[in-house]
Request: fold
Amino acid sequence: MNAESDVMVVAGILALLYRITPAAVGEGPAGTATRNYVAEDREGRRWFVKAYPRGTDLAEERQALALGEAARAAGVPVPAVRRTVSGEVIASAGGLSVSVAEYVADAETAEGGLAGGRWDAVGEAVGRLHRALARHPAGPPRPVAAREVCDVARAGRRLKELLARWAAAPPVPEGFAAWCARTAKQRLAALPEVAARLEKLPGSLTAQIVHGDLASPNLLLRGETVAAVIDFRPPGHRSAAWELGRIVLDPRTVLARPDDWIPGLARAVDAYRTANPQLPAADLLAVPRVAAGYLACSVYPLSEPLNDPDALTPALEAYGRARHEAADVMWEHLDEAEEVLRDVLR
Reply:
């Protein structure tokens, strides 16, 4: 199908299966793996329509939507899912499978970075989210070894595999692919030092049901408030400290505000703790070390020129470079960040 025919199929699905009579349907913000649409009905109400590619595990997507609904029921700002006339959260027809949710108007993603009251708002929202999901039927929080959160041994294996692939398909000397190959080599050489730094983490960290993909594109802001948390993944236990650090220490925030990210982190952690006092202080103190360690152990997007060259865009290339640079900045100022957090957590 082409884009025009997909729009027609989406319009038909909305009318037949959701009882939404669309006045207009157009392509919406791009998704990582989905094609998204925005529909407006005859009453002027707008809807966000996510179309899943063929081969998507729809059972997992239903679990992800249910997780978002559970968070919404606990007061987290998650857009309401629209069900079909038969009560389903995903509809399939005409070769497309879609889900439909309320459209969040007048909001922007957190990709522009955090500043001012946004630090507090995001910390509070993530704390409320984690407090709600700690009661999820998939299981209560549990301790996991810190080495599982930032797995240096696994990172070493993945970097060696990636370098072998780069050796078999050498990139041209200039450009993003060549940078990726050089950076993968640097990351591998730095892993012993990373491992030594991660030894200062507590022996275990708290893992619980979390959002699963709480990156800046999936957090919508309106002024200094959180307008919506979107695109949950199926329920899975991961480190709460990892998820908090991933969103509040986004590389673009760290690099854009070199004098603000440490006090901003302190504000976010303080707001998080107020909303979720159950998470141990040791986990919150670990946030910057876990965030830096996770970036240092990641092969994304260094592997993208080989895995999915069509996905490369100037924005992705800039983000890849920012991830590498931000890890260095966080390591350099880690002692200062942890000292500030100790004061907050006393």
